[in-house]
Design brief:
The protein has 336 residues and is of the alpha/beta class. 43% of the residues lie in helices and 18% in strands. The protein is built from 13 helices and 14 strands. Strands 1-2-13-10-3-6 form a six-stranded mixed β-sheet, sandwiched between helices. The chain has a two-stranded parallel ribbon with strand order 4-5. Strand 7 and strand 8 form a beta hairpin. The protein is globular.
Length: 336
Amino acid sequence: MHDNAKTNAAKPFHRWFLGMIIASIFSFAYLIIPIYLLSSIYCLILRFPTTKSAFIYAMPMLISIVIPAKASPFILRHLSPMLDYFDYEAIYTDDENVRKRIHEGENFLFAAQPHGILSFVGMCAAASKPDDVLRVPTAAASAVLQTPLLKNLMGIFNLVDASAGSLKKILKRSSVLIYIGGIAELFKSCRTEERLYLKKRKGFIKLALREEERLYLKKRKGFIKLALREGVDVVPVYLFGNTSVLSVLKHGPLASLSRKLQVSLTFFWGKFFLPIPRDEKILYVVGKPLGLPNIAEPTQEDIDKWHSVYCEEVRKLFEMYKEKVPMYKHKKLFID
């Protein structure tokens, strides 16, 4: 099943422009919120410039601390201009079967890759059909769920804790989508611009894109063990474009801190070297269920076997659909 957000007619400029504004709000927020939180704590501790001014400045942070994150299909409906900005498209390869099994009470573990700095592909998928049965909760790092303001901003996408204990409880009553590679994958797979010094043109520097996509997957087997134990099937999901709409600073203290906290605190950029995502085509592809059995106590051999099946299905999805996305036509997939 294909769900193409783009029609044959050209999209109105105001839709494209509004989509850029909406997408940029999320990316700018990811940069500004950590800075604001640190400065608020600084002002409160030192009562700078005055006690009253410090509390007024920190008020958004303090209010956010006591307000829980809440899913909001209403807000998601108003994010639809992003679909036009990114030329969003979705492909569900086994849609009828999955929907039927969900209606019959079966739960699935949707395993998505790659992560990207911000999952604009996943965000567009949520905005395209906010009330759809396939819009399941998305697992996120506890750091995101606990960070003031950020938890409220991203909470509209129906986020849940990605810890093993939390996922085990959720899968007993609902399907869930998890990002397998997490933040570690962000620094492996995000768009990289390399400087090439041309011999015949001394002093000239050309920016070229690395024609590869790297997934942090070889050591990520816990989701397979969880699915086997809970008796839920795994559905691979590939997010074409998550790693190309923004570039990330992969080295330095902020990158190291991001890995430790499991949240992206590093610098990133897009159009005009600003945190404005590039308006490139993105594609959301949902594969077929792998057919995992229910094994209460899976052996390492069981886990390795079904992990290999998952990796192979991910590779198939990549090779089958990469031609539909201009930035991916010549890319090769590496599983690290």
